[in-house]
From TrEMBL:
Gene Ontology cellular component terms for the protein in this record: cytoplasm
The Impact N-terminal domain, residue ranges: 20-125
Species for this entry: Dawidia soli
Classification via PANTHER family: IMPACT FAMILY MEMBER YIGZ (PTHR16301:SF20), IMPACT-RELATED (PTHR16301)
The name this protein goes by in its record: IMPACT family protein
Recorded family membership: Belongs to the IMPACT family.
Origin: domain of life: Bacteria
Stored PROSITE patterns: UPF0029
Alphabetized SUPFAM superfamilies for the sequence: Ribosomal protein S5 domain 2-like (SSF54211)
GO biological process: regulation of translational initiation
Signal sequence extent: none
Length: 209
């Protein structure tokens, strides 16, 4: 089923968990791309260069189909999966959670690690403010100057967020519209065309903003 909205965090947050001398520092970030994820990971690895492990999990996209969990040297599924589980349990996306571990000299065992990474990630996410955002789709409108009043009425009616405008031999308006109302916008633009107003809608790929 196609998602019309999604939940993500407003700003970066931190958390911490300690167990038998080991210290688990957790960091949660709002992200929108794998490039942004890479930047955060590189920054943490540079700042906490002396830590033994930098385990993480991330989720991207309103449909939550892009995700990854990484154990970074811990036993398989003992670190990344518990972190990802906390993201999923809160129904979040466009989020990265990293847990940096400083080893305290006493082994925790697989069960202890699963619990520690889960609780560290949980602590970071408990401090986060969660937003529910609508999924939006990019659109481009091309029209004659004479059609401007009709186009502006459509823009207002469907709450199109204008991102760029160009005026040359005609008019080009780029913006985003809620995915849920996009079909109705297409229908309305087609109706304007039937009234001899030259308006063309060029939909792009869905994009979240």
């Amino acid at each position: 089923m196609q998602a019309f909205s999604y939940r993500t965090i407003q700003q970066p947050t931190q958390g911490v968990y300690k167990e038998k001398g080991s210290k688990f520092l957790a960091f949660a970030y709002p992200v929108s791309s794998e490039a942004a994820i890479k930047e955060h990971l590189e920054a943490l690895r540079k700042e906490y260069f002396d830590a033994r492990h930098h385990c993480y999990a991330w989720m991207l996209g309103p449909d939550k189909q892009r995700f990854r969990a990484a154990d970074d040297g811990e036993p398989n599924h003992s670190a990344g999966d518990p972190i990802l589980g906390q993201i999923r349990s809160r129904d979040l996306t466009d989020v990265l959670v990293v847990v940096v571990r400083y080893f305290g000299g006493i082994k925790l065992g697989v069960g202890g690690l699963i619990s520690a990474y889960k609780l560290a990630a949980e602590d970071a996410l408990l401090h986060a403010v969660v937003d529910t955002r609508e999924v939006r789709k990019e659109v481009t409108l091309r029209y004659d100057y004479s059609a401007t009043p009709e186009v502006m009425r459509v823009i207002k009616e469907f709450d199109v967020a204008i991102t760029a405008q160009e005026y040359t031999d005609g008019c080009v308006l780029q913006g985003t519209v809620a995915l849920q109302t996009h079909p109705a916008l297409v229908e309305k633009v087609a109706l304007l065309g039937a009234l001899s107003v030259r308006v063309v809608l060029l939909p792009d790929a869905p994009a979240s903003v």
